[in-house]
Fold:
Amino acid sequence: MPIRINPSILAADFANFEHELGRIRTADLVHVDIMDNHFVPNLTFGLAMVDRLQQVSPLPLDIHLMIDDPDRWAPGYAEVGAYSVTFHAEAATDAVALARRLRSIGARAGLALNPGTPVKQYLDLLPEFDQVLVMTVEPGFGGQSFMASTMPKLEALSAAVKSSGLDVWLQVDGGITAQTIEIAAAAGADTFVAGSSVFGADDPTEQIALLRAAAARHDHGHE
Ligand code: DX5
Ligand code: ZN
Structure:
């Protein structure tokens, strides 16, 4: 199974996104954190910015919506051409209807779970999603420490995906470094968001290669 490294532009230079996107060409997707100052305390950017990034990005966009009322706002991100749109289970009113809507527009549909949100009730919904995002920090800010306590959820998801035969990507987001990526890969993750560890590196290309190699070493999830 392929490993995907998705740098988060939350850690990039906000005044030079086009240049910053050029520094991560060896990555797989660009992770874009949308925060609304309600679902999370922080505020980033919205649909107009994503529409523009979509035009200039050499890589597909992986949109992570940390917003209230995704039922209302998420389809717009699919409509501007985002490759993948992930919304939070805690915020959605009808997660299945929303996922179907995103897919019908042509985006991959993703479901995100906060560290404190149990996974059990979502395992039956796997056929409705292309990706599940297990948050490995409390959403809202970059640069936080990886919470290994979330790994049992990933293991449960990985087992459920394997037994279902579905192609659902398992993503982790928060505190991913060359060290913690091994823990997440061993627990079954295949898609890794990394903000500070990529954009904080002197050479993002080298860091992306390092992350990829570290994940591949511990990729028990897809033997
Ligand atoms: C946190 C965001 C993350 C963030 C990760 O709420 O969802 O995508 O950019 O940043 P690092 O990799 O620095 O923990
Ligand atoms: Zn994110």
